[in-house]
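Fold it.
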Amino acid sequence: MKPQILAAATAIALGLGTAGAIAQDDMVMGQGHSMLTGALFNALSAEGFDTSNINNLTLSQVAQIRQLMADDMGTTERGRIERILEDAAS
């Protein structure tokens, strides 16, 4: 095989391998986000929150809500959680 063709074939093979790894990382991240959201759905439902837009939450918002729920949840924390959930609706 000519050196230019070999170099091009190698570059394509490496690029496809990288694309596959990125796609797999995205899939794993999506599954992880789904698991976190599912657990959060259960916790929010048990506390009486509206969970209709829970799938719109970002990972950061999920983490914020989990932290607020880990604290001694009072009126302030409930209000902040409701605002985050409302923001996810838009």
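DSSP finds three helices and no strands in the chain.
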